[in-house]
Amino acid sequence: MKIVRLTISNFRGIRSANLLFEGHTLMVGPNNVGKSTICEALDLVLGPDRLNRFPAIDEFDFYNANYLAPPGEGGAVRVPVPLRIEVVLIDLSVEVDGKCGGHIEFWHVGEKRLLGSGEAAIANPPFAVPCLRLETTGKYDPDEDEFEARTFFSHSPDAEAGELTPVPRSIKRLFGFLYLRALRTGSRALSLERGSLLDIILRAKGVRTRLWEKTIESLRGLDIEADAEEIAPVLRSVEKRLSRYIALEAPGNATRLHVSELTREHLRKTMSFFLAISADQGHVPFAHAGTGTVNTLVLALLSFIAELKPETVIFAMEEPEIAVAPHTQRRIADYLLTKTTQTFVTSHSPFVIERFEPAQTLLLARIGGDVSSKKVSEATGLKDNEFKRYARWGLSECMLGKAAIVVEGLTELHALPVAARRMEEQNPELQPLDIAGAAFFNSDGDGNGPKFGKFFKALGLKTIAFYDHKPARPEDQKASYAEAFEINCEHVHKGFEDLIAMEMPADRLWSFLSAIKGSGESGKVGIPAERPGDDDVRATVKKALASNKGAGWAARLFEECEFGELPPTVVSFLNSVFALFPPPPSIADEPDPAEPELFA
Length: 600
Description:
The longest helix is centred in the middle third of the chain and has 18 residues, at about 290-310. The protein has three domains: about 1-70 and about 80-190 and about 285-380, P-loop containing nucleotide triphosphate hydrolases (Rossmann fold, 3-Layer(aba) Sandwich); about 195-280, no CATH class; about 380-585, no CATH class. The strands form three sheets. Strands 1, 2, 3, 4, 5, 6, 7, 8, 9, 10, 13, 14, 15 and 16 form a 14-stranded mixed β-sheet that branches. A four-stranded parallel β-sheet has the order 18-17-19-20, sandwiched between helices. Strands 11-12 form a two-stranded antiparallel ribbon. The protein is an alpha/beta fold. Helix 5 packs parallel to helix 9 and helix 19 (about 505-520) packs across helix 20 (about 535-545). GO terms for molecular function: endonuclease activity. Keywords: Endonuclease, Hydrolase, Nuclease. Pfam families: AAA_15, OLD-like_TOPRIM.
């Protein structure tokens, strides 16, 4: 089974969203754009256990916690405002098709919509496929003073007029949906709590254990006081005092210690999975193992579940990269892509992002409470192989931000962020670029800038370019730069090394050359022992920077110089960038005179 559409209304941080999916999906976007909320929405509709909690939802599951409409004129009763989440499923399993046949509709594959009445003629493959539409609605019940949520078949032809048929828990289990939350996965994954991965495995294998009866019987017969005789006098003393107020008529001792409440549910919560990591270490609770080990154990359980239900496993997984080495991140991503029918992943890791095709990668955007998505493949100007090549080289970081500053070489990539930080330190009024969501990106060569600028612009980012002057630059390339970038800075120098050599004080440049010569780093640059004339100093610096682009020397020079010695062209360019990101309102240092001081 696969999810092809998700519609959200009034749920958590999303006022409205209408998202289309085509198989495996990687969701990327800045923090608080709605990635986790989308996963929670899927769990609310498809998860078999989510609605069995009490309460299943609360005030903050409604957008802006608005679960009641504003009061009408004359103080009319406030009407509950519902939340609604709808999912459309295709590629239904034989079992789901057989048990939900009366609720089947048809999905137009090409137009990505439901077929309506009068379209029976095209309700056949390849134009249309059977689909199942489910919706979860939640609302506040004023009479009971409670929140309630239920899942229904959106198409319920056999229900009473105006009513929908509920989806039973047994049907939800057939969907095979699993939601693994970031950071919280390990706390329950290896427990026996309901809905944990171990519990899911036992249910999938049809295991009906007598563990609970046997364990409760064993615990009931365990005499703790026998091993701790010093406790018995205290308990007897407690009994005497209780007997003054309560008639304790039971034979023998009226009080006793047990290690559990001796109920199934309490045992589920208290039982713990122990693990021995090395030969010299005893078994310890799995949660005490390293976070990376716990997450890898979770992956092992996921593979077990997928093998048990290979045709009906839909995973939603938040940030699989947390506390996991890069090679394990890649393995997790590859596993999800090859062993599940559909997976939804949120990630900030280039090692995960590079595993998904551009057509599988959705960039989420928010305007107010309305969330939209766009495939990365829709961002024209960048081929799929280029996307995968550059994903680990800064492309992912830019995609997750708000602005991309495109440069055409390693020297600029290393040096410009240093200059920006120096400016931020010099002027606290500036909004730091990393906080503003602006990231630097190396387009790796002359003339590549417009291609990436067009890509970032199509994704809705602010686009900024800083590149060398080329007298013979073709007119069409100039036009491409102007079209692709909001700030299009072609500086007057033939190269960034020329810019540094010509605009920084010669004395500072000589100090830098002397330092690298003294450290033995200069190699074949040919730095003289005595300071030559200014022109020779500038020529030598240009040669040094050009022959050692990967050494970060320009960045070091910007780090060590006085602030006033930074190249004016660089400072002017970065000032134009900072102007795009006004600083947040300042926090007043002086207390409000109307407020009393906390300490006199």
